[in-house]
Amino acid sequence: MAAEGPGQLRCLPLDEVTRPAWDDYARGKREAWLPHLADWSLKIVPALGHECRSFMVIDGEGKVRGLVPLGLRRSRLFGASLVSVPGASWAGPLAEEGGALEAITEELVRQAREARVKFVEIRDGERLPEPFGVTAGYLRFPISLGPGLDAPVPDERTRRRLKKAHKAGVRAVLVSPDRDEFHDIYARAMARLGSPALGREFFRALASAFGEELRVVLVEAGGAVVAVDLVGFWNGLGCSLFAGATDVGRGVQADLIAIEAGLAAAVSRGCHTFDLGRSPAGSGGQTFKLHWKPQAVPLGYQHLRNGCGAPPDLNPDRVLWRAARTVWRLFPLWFQARLGPSIARQLL
Fold this sequence. Notes:
Elements: E1 10-13, H1 19-27, H2 38-47, E2 51-52, E3 55-58, E4 64-68, E5 71-75, E6 79-84, E7 94-95, H3 100-115, E8 119-123, E9 132-144, H4 156-167, E10 171-175, H5 180-193, H6 200-210, E11 214-221, E12 224-234, E13 237-245, H7 247-251, H8 254-268, E14 273-280, H9 284-290, E15 297-304, H10 319-330, H11 333-347
Parallel strand pairs: 6-8, 13-14
Antiparallel strand pairs: 1-3, 2-5, 3-4, 4-7, 5-6, 8-15, 9-14, 9-15, 10-11, 11-12, 12-13
Helix pairs in contact: 2-6
């Protein structure tokens, strides 16, 4: 790939040669976050079983004008698709003015035709011109932090629950991302929700690639770990990535303690924002997160409309997915652990 774009802009693939320029550009963009780094495309996307198709746009002087973290996902459930970027809720194009978005659009269309994908899904980012369109079925929930701002506090009801949990001795600690307790509780929480869980190998890849940027919040009650939250910190943004709690943990408000600890860690690292992650609009997840008084920011997912079909609607509140979750809960945990990661990879 070295396709010519508008104004003699060129598209170059992300590889070991272009990695330094790629990361330098990402570090200079306030809206970039962890999945925009080269290691996400080069290590995390393959760990999910997908092919890295990330590319950047350079001008005639070799200066980077934009980039797109991108993966080619081949799924038995949904067919082939181009996704920006597998494993992340949002990480779309970063680009400058002057034709970069047009060059990115042309390259995405070219790759879609070459790979014969059923759909292209660009998860937010700079808005692409036609033939891309935008849908906004998901929200993200950032909380602003930083000098001159009051310490973030949840609503009164949540503050009372936190106070009660603290009095009961529920406590959180931050540890390195390679702890086994994390996956044990995360997988069981996903099973309770009726959703397949990602395997340990995916989280090992995350820990290997981003060990310094990741921490696991372990919440303990009665001498046992009852809730976990994998949190990422980079470029001034802290974000809850994957979380879960046991039934005991939910009963003692351990999920709230985990968020409180993640927020405190983001403040201590000097982050300007802590994001509670993605939820479908109108969902229970949205209701839970709004207790922390964040902004509710629509995620503009962009889809190629010409020559491709519509992406699948994965809203968990749809009748189809509610039925699938009910069936999944019937399977024993050993079966879910064996089959779940291969299904989960096709959903990310």
